[in-house]
Amino acid sequence: xxxxxxxxxxxxxxxxxxxxxxxxxxxxxxxxxxxxxxxxxxxxxxxxxxxxxxxxxxxxxxxxxxxxxxxxxxxxxxxxxxxxxxxxxxxxxxxxxxxxxxxxxxxxxxxxxxxxxxxxxxxxxxxxxxxxxxxxxxxxxxxxxxxxxxxxxxxxxxxxxxxxxxxxxxxxxxxxxxxxxxxxxxxxxxxxxxxxxxxxxxxxxxxxxxxxxxxxxxxxxxxxxxxxxxxxxxxxxxxxxxxxxxxxxxxxxxxxxxxxxxxxxxxxxxxxxxxxxxxxxxxxxxxxxxxxxxxxxxxxxxxxxxxxxxxxxxxxxxxxxxxxxxxxxxxxxxxxxxxxxxxxxxxxxxxxxxxxxxxxxxxxxxxxxxxxxxxxxxxxxxxxxxxxxxxxxxxxxxxxxxxxxxxxxxxxxxxxxxxxxxxxxxxxxxxxxxxxxxxxxxxxxxxxxxxxxxxxxxxxxxxxxxxxxxxxxxxxxxxxxxx
Amino acid sequence: xxxxxxxxxxxxxxxxxxxxxxxxxxxxxxxxxxxxxxxxxxxxxxxxxxxxxxxxxxxxxxxxxxxxxxxxxxxxxxxxxxxxxxxxxxxxxxxxxxxxxxxxxxxxxxxxxxxxxxxxxxxxxxxxxxxxxxxxxxxxxxxxxxxxxxxxxxxxxxxxxxxxxxxxxxxxxxxxxxxxxxxxxxxxxxxxxxxxxxxxxxxxxxxxxxxxxxxxxxxxxxxxxxxxxxxxxxxxxxxxxxxxxxxxxxxxxxxxxxxxxxxxxxxxxxxxxxxxxxxxxxxx
Lengths: 483, 284
Known about the structure:
The complex is a heterodimer.
Chain A: H1 2-5, H2 9-64, H3 68-76, E1 92-97, E2 102-105, H4 122-132, E3 142-145, E4 149-158, E5 161-171, H5 172-223, H6 240-301, H7 307-330, E6 340-341, H8 343-359, E7 363-368, E8 374-377, H9 378-395, E9 401-409, E10 412-420, H10 426-429, H11 447-457, E11 461-467, E12 470-478
Parallel strand pairs in A: 7-9
Antiparallel strand pairs in A: 1-2, 1-5, 3-4, 4-5, 6-8, 9-10, 10-12, 11-12
Chain B: H1 2-27, E1 30-34, H2 43-57, E2 61-65, H3 69-77, E3 83-85, H4 88-93, E4 98-105, E5 111-112, E6 114-119, E7 135-138, H5 144-156, H6 161-164, E8 167-170, H7 174-183, E9 188-192, H8 193-202, H9 204-208, E10 210-215, E11 219-220, E12 224-227, H10 232-244, H11 249-257, E13 262-264, H12 272-281
Parallel strand pairs in B: 1-2, 1-3, 7-8, 7-9
Antiparallel strand pairs in B: 3-12, 4-12, 4-13, 5-11, 6-9, 6-10
Helix pairs in contact in B: 2-11, 5-12
């Protein structure tokens, strides 16, 4: 039984529907058939009683005068003509006297005159007992359904005197044949109804089940980490199921956003940790380095050093200077005092980069709406601009375009850069702002990391996206107190 | 206005009364009673016979059919009928009140018999004695062949006709006795040989359903009688018509339909045997 309940809705809904339809049709058909049986029987008994009453009235005088022949003619009259399958037509009529002996019989060969009703058979004995129980003149009309025949007994009485009983006998064969016809017709209609309803039910059931099954698959995927909603348009209506679909879609979307946010958080925390570590390291290196450079400088200006020694010292000095450059690149001091960002800073950056752009035949297009000083440290913003645009110029296809848009509005400065060129693969995009992440041989791999650190320290946000050969960077910086 | 018309009508009726009555005397239709002594319920042949009589007698003729002999006898005695075709038993019984008009001739002789019949399905019964305790159908209490003869035969056999059968009933015609026996309603019955023979031609299915197990002696054929007060002219005219029927083509055709050869004047001697029978049974 469990097997039935575990079936897919795809089968369960049509199956249950079919079961209900079949049950309902069977019930209706059975009721119709039972009703028609009752009606037929009622018709039969009604017409039989009517016939009996008419016959009994005329029989009364015939029996009173002991006119056997007349009685015989009276009870034979309704049996003339073709029998056919008329179930109302009696099979036999008997006129019985007070002692339940046959006074006249429509079929004297089968039931001869003077025969005792009781001696004719089991049914007849039961009938005789019932008639004998009501010997009065105004006795009710009796009916008895025997094994093969239906009997209707009508008192032959007038003015309070009872002379006997008229018994009308109907064959059940004809009655059952007629009933059989009616039953077959009802069953036929039932089958027709089933033939129409079952396919409709099957189609409708499938139609209802398919979205549910889709939803179940989607929920299964979501539960196992695949954040995928059901395909759009699986169920296009606004009923409860439609609402379920819509809300499920919303739920999946918010789950996906949450997961992306978590990823973002992890990445920023990692970058922050790396930033703190590298800044600390840079400090620790920078302090002795300063001392070492001052000592070397003093040493150089001291007299008495031969050429060879000076050469060596210069080499050490250059090495240390390179270390200092690298280390200072990693030391982002956001709190340095700087003037506000001015419109001419944009032009400066454009001018500084024009050489690089020209070298690679790339058009550098810069648009901005900055007309007043913006309360952001100019040095840092220039560095961010420089880094992003240099990055763009290096990644852009030759003879391409690099676009930069600066927009200051409501205390926020947004910088958007865009270049056409090789897309950044997704696995690289995830670690783009980590030190030494890019496979770019030209730079030291710190440009974007430094940019990220600057933006973070200024309380802003930076994002990158790369698809279909277009790479975009988006920076948002909140303007602070004017310097 | 209405009253005036009614008055005028009443007056004219009253004044024309006597002449009307005399018209009635000459225009009065001849009333002829028919009984089931022959198959009197066949309409077409009898209608032809009536029209034949009207043409020959040049006056209107009415046939009055009654199922029971006694009714026809009563009508005769009440002078409601002029002539009647009755059974030989009531003729003898009421001989003083009627005049013998004509006697039918069947198979060349003015006689007929009583046939004792049982259902064709009953192949066992071969004699009257075997019908003891059975249901028996008589024709009419004033029928010779259908009542008197079987009772006489029982009496001759030393049986009491009143208790010999379990049940008896009157079917009120020979034809119905045939039907009663044929359907099995009665186990036996007695019918006129003439009716039996006639029906065996016209309705063979009726006679096929029964079997004749005994034939009685011959009796004078059920006669045509005149009511006692019919005047001689009318009597002679009518008798002539009956006797002359076999002389013309139309009459012969009617006789064929009635399954008769013709009529003779006959006399009371023909019915002496019937009279003896009545006396023997003690019905007179």
